[in-house]
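Entry 14. Structure prediction run on the chain below.
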Amino acid sequence: MTIIRIVAVALSAFLAAPAVVSTSPARAAAPYVPCPAVKPPVPPPAAPSPPPVGPADLAVGGESLATAGLSVPAGAPMAPAVTATSWVVADLDSGAVLGGCGPHEHRTPASVQKMLLAAALMPHLDPTQVVEVTPADLQDLDPASSVMGLVPGGRYSIESLWLGLLLKSGNDAANVLARVGGGAAGRQGGVQAMNDEAHRLGANQTHAATPSGLDGPGQYTSAYDLALIARAAYARADFRRYIATRVAEIPAEPGRPGFSITHDNTLLDHYPGTLGGKTGFTDLARQTYVGVAERDGRRLAVTLLGAETAPLGSLGEAAALLNWGFALSPDASVGRLVAPDDRKHDRPLAQLRAEQHGQARAARSLPWVIISGSGVAGALAVLLLAAPWRRRAARAAAKP
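Output returned:
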């Protein structure tokens, strides 16, 4: 019995020890293919180098997206040459990423950041609520920046503010919405809500420092993240209605006349099937754009960052990329837009697959190790498994 107990203890310790699975190193990035590019006639001003992207974040949505270069389906026609330094074309409904250039690379967003403000706060603000504009909402705005025309002491509905934000890229509207949506924490609370929403969506390259997209310290996004944000925003009927509005009337108030605001996204009337879009520009970000168009039952989103005014500008480049995307087969893809509850993006897909393969291999091999293992562990396993059989055989032999 003493030997059996020793064997049992030893085997228990052996089985309790964690299995060590040897796997090959995870591939951190897809092979680099240069993006088709057009050299702008005027070189853009120098900008600080963005922070690098870690291997886990590079692989979000698929290993083919883990590149600073071009990612397109095998056999697909060449993507159009553009000045944008990163872009993504994705199917808004299926979540398939059709192609991209540096999809996860950090870039400065400019006013396309306002879509994150909408995704974060639109579900929580009553569109009929009327709020009063404070001097603090307007005091830090660049006079040359885009505004919807709010005045201190003016009272506006939340719906009017959303229209001003999305049609005229109103930085004044962004400040008010962030302050109201931020509750006791004010505007900074609204910015925090934006960062919380980016985290929930898996937009790992996105950090908001301002609600409007005006440049701020450490403020970045990526073309892939913007596609995630666009998908979340376009899932809402109210957002789709606001972003597709051509002209909105802001009601008059006592002592203040009403006024009209017109959508500044010209693709609404010049690119067939456009469902809306958001432009952006700062000296640091250059031209940025997020838009959605529908054709033959497919809704494609295009996101681009770092474009120049010539030769096509962000809107012309967006149209060219949409044409390329619609020409692809509906089942063509190089990756996917992750869902908010998909936590697998915490590690590279190659690493996860290697671990899953190793775990399955270890599970399949465990019975064989117990039966025919080598060395001390195998001998102990054989002795332990054999002992009950030997006792049963002895008892049977002793019966008359």
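Residues 1-27, 344-400 have pLDDT under 50 and may be disordered.
Filed with the rest of this week's runs.
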